[in-house]
Amino acid sequence: MNPMYFDDFELGQEFVTKARTVTEADIVNFAALSWDTNPLHTDAEFAAGSHFGERIAHGMLGLVIHAGLSQQLGNLEGTLVAFLGMNWQFHHPIKIGDTIHVVQRVKELRETSQGNRGVLTFEKEVLNQRHQVVQSGTTTVLMLRKKSGDD
C-alpha cells in the first residue's frame, strides 16, 4: 500500500492486516527480552495447572505483534510524525499456535494548529483464527498533511 497523509483518511475507513501465527519461540524470546518470566508464559507444568490449562503469550507480546502487523500495512510509512498514545484492553489469552490479525478503523481525525499536521485515532481489534477479539483499543498518531498543490 502507498503511504497515506492525514488528508487521505476518512472516518470509518477500515484496514485489515495480514495474519501471523504466534509461536513458542516468540514467547521464549519475548520473555528473554522483557525479563518477564511469569510461569504462565514460561513453565508448561505450572501453566497446565492454571485456569488457562496451557502456556499463553504475554499480553504485551500480543500488543507488540499488533504494532508490527499494523506497520506492515505501509500506509503510515514516511507520513507518521509521532506515536501519541494508546488505550488498550486484553480480553482473551493468545495461545501458542494462534494466528492473529488486526482490523483497524479510523475513529477520529483532528486538525492541529499547525497546518502541516493532523491527529489520527484508530480503533483496533486483534482477532485470532476463530474471529475472537483477543485484544482491542485505540492508538493515536500525529500525521503529516499534504502540502498545498499535492491535492
UniProtKB/TrEMBL annotation:
Pfam families: MaoC_dehydratas. Gene3D superfamilies: Hotdog Thioesterase. InterPro entries: HotDog_dom_sf, MaoC-like_dom, MCH/BMMD. Residues 11-116 form the MaoC-like domain. Signal peptide: none annotated. This is MaoC family dehydratase. It comes from Desulfoferula mesophila.
